[in-house]
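REQUEST ID: PR-0412
SUBMITTED BY: lab tech R.K.
PRIORITY: routine
TASK: structure prediction, single protein chain
INPUT:
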Amino acid sequence: IGSLRAANSAESSYYSTCAAGAYAVTLDDLAKPPNGTSQGFISPDLASNGVTKSGYQHTMAKDASPGTLDVGTAAATCNGSTSTPATSYYASAVPITLNSTGTRYFATDKRGTIFMDSAAAIANPIPGTATAVQ
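STATUS: complete
OUTPUT:
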């Protein structure tokens, strides 16, 4: 949950300062520092898609919801992102070994709400029936 909160916070900063009102669609792009600085938007322990942290695999992608659009170009971002920013993102944390390294699956998107499921990974886009973490 903490890692997805960090991703939401990083996305908020990226959106407001780096990509002219758009979101990064990979953890790699959030890890890239803005030109002229040395610190990215997210901590180095979450610096790439597929990274393992605290028994979970963390990934980020473009939100698959209808209406999610690319915005501008990757080159036009403040950090020279690799992927084109979009109007929404999807981030997930999936246990490496269910019931051993973790007992729930988690996901979030531009709404900032973290959703969980104890039976299966949460689809992209997050379904309307998903359970929000309290």
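NOTES: The first strand starts at residue 51 and ends at 53.
REVIEWED BY: pending
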